[in-house]
Amino acid sequence: MLGLLALGVSGIAAIGVLVALFSLLAVALPGRPQMWTIHLMRRSALLLSCVAATVYFMGMFWLEVAVNESLSGTDSAPSPSCRQDAPVAIEHISGYEVRYLPLRFECFLDNGASYASSEFPTWLTALPAVLAPAAALLALGARHLTRRRTP
Fold it and tell me: pTM value?
């Protein structure tokens, strides 16, 4: 259920990316607004935040698909996401845990050790973690410029 929600949110965010991209390009066309730098900063912030949301929720959907694959089916135990990283230690895999911040599928061995599955790249968390603060800084900068220019 959470996977479908994540897929829906990432789809909406992807549409937001397109809208933000077109509105960002509109600033470069003739007839742009007077305070175009503020519009450029706001629209860039919108674009970055939509890209961050799209990437994060697609990663969340990817995790939920792996969880679903691990919960049901003939070849579900131990988890396929854990087996691909430790083919020699398949009999020692005791479980897994899903983490949403950072996005991670963590596998546990019976001796207490754990490792993150390599099925989920680190950029699924790193990219939104960089883009979201950049979007916030752009939005704050646009707000600062608006306050400075208005009497």
Answer: 0.75
